Amino acid sequence: MKHFWLPLIACLLTGWLGHGVHGATPVAPKNALDSTAQPELWFYAPTNFQVNERVDALIDLMRRAKGLGYSAMVTSDYKWGDFTDRPAHYFENLQRVKTAADRLGMEIIPAVCNIGYSNSLLMNDPNLAAALPVRDCLMTVRDGQATVANPENLLPFGDAENWKGNSPQGWSWVDGAGVSLFRDEQIKHSGKASIRMTDFAKGNEVGNARINRKLAVKPFHQYHFSAWIRTRDVKPAGDIRFVVLGKAGKSLNFTDAGVKTTQDWTQHHIVFNTLDNEEVNVYLGIWAGKGGTMWIDDVALTRVAGVNLLRREGCPLRVTSEDGKTVYEEGRDFDRWEHDKLGRVPWAGSYEVYHSLPAFKLALGSRIGQGQTIKVSYYHTTVIHGDQVCCSLLHEDVFKYVEREAREINKYFQPRRWMMNHDEIRVAGWDELYKDNQTVGEALAANVQRCADILKKVSPKATIYAWSDMFDPHHNAHADYYLCRTTLAESWRGLDKSVGIVNWNFGARDKSLAFFNQRGHGQVIAGYYDDSQVEERVKEWRAACRGKATVQAVMYATWVGNYDDLERFAKAVRGESWK
What we know:
The chain has 579 residues and is of the alpha/beta class. 19% of the residues lie in helices and 27% in strands. Helix 1 (52-67) packs parallel to helix 2, helix 5 (396-413) packs parallel to helix 6 and helix 8 runs parallel beside helix 9 (566-574).
């Protein structure tokens, strides 16, 4: 769905089940249509309120949308995560948008509670990120500093120097040897040769061009997988990937490689946690390649320690002797171990996929001796896709920042409806804040209920909405979701009936609509996803809703800032009754 922060939103129509927050009946906008026949129209428009020109463009968009029958705008800003040190014109721009909305009769619904796409919240404290565990990583002390005891490259043949016929040596298998994969002695990063991949479909009917190796690894350890890559007119470059699969083919890495269509030699990185796997399958290459040429050289996979290291409650650091009998103390035996730029590169709330390892230094008078091997257990976070980092579902400080954001937004917009951005929560359940076999679903239920209670406290008469996906058993609320340790089932128990559901589960719309309807939730349809088949998608949603759910609103939700179809969408939604 939404690959970046600021997940989309939608809204609810008047008279929804006759209930609002605390039992209050929502007040309908003056121009609201019959909620049982014609839904309200909403559009999603996040912006950067610190740039005056962006705000000018937003107000122009509001005017245009109002003329087409849209009655509300859902908006958000990455900077809402922390209002500290914002320039005066930032707050003036918030007021400008509110004044324009009042004059137009356009309602503003702010999207807050960024649980899932949490980078804006994590500006406040990067250590509040969701955690993965490393257990008993062996580190050896040399020159007063501990480093990973076994840092050897598990892919020493990744330099592409040795070949047998048309195949580079050392790999378990490759796609298209001598057909779409070749030795190249003219273009290489180092040494005498590189791997060149081209004419992808000639070597594999679907266009895959990959190299693979099965490897033995240590469970619950961090590994760094890297390669130097050069490209020329590769399509689609986004499908050049590092893939790491564990038991039953479960992926252990969801970080994008970030390779460009055409680029000179560039080193790309991923870092993954082996979790409970003693063996992994690693792949590098392109999936379903359509054209162009790519070169790969100097591939490496090494054990590392401390990448995106977290230091917070629930993520204890434990250091012992190799036999486990002696427990060493931070401050007494070693200096504080941390990454001083965690979540700060290139800006606050942004995490590096890979960075130089934080130094583990012995303290004066340490009981740890030179040449000694120690065991280090810790927690770290990971980057999902391009830049997503999830926050902890349970840490108390998360709710402190959620409330601060809501109170600041309430000062300027005084909204009567709010959207909670619980969406695509992909890392959860591993740290020690989870007690007594608490599942991720149970933790999420507690989190969303707590966030809703905060919004009720800030804005007692307001109505609250939530995205469907993390509370839908036919979507993401199930077992084996990304890097969540346990099932997300039962997460929906954290939503009382006063919370509206913004349903975007187009693929299982019949089941999803019925599930939330049975639980008594009012529903809103997120009906636009940058798909050129505007009328057809609206028609399919309408058919699924008839007789199964009352549609209070339909939302134009663009993930790429494309408002070209605003008119077509409005016309399609208004074309027929949604009864």
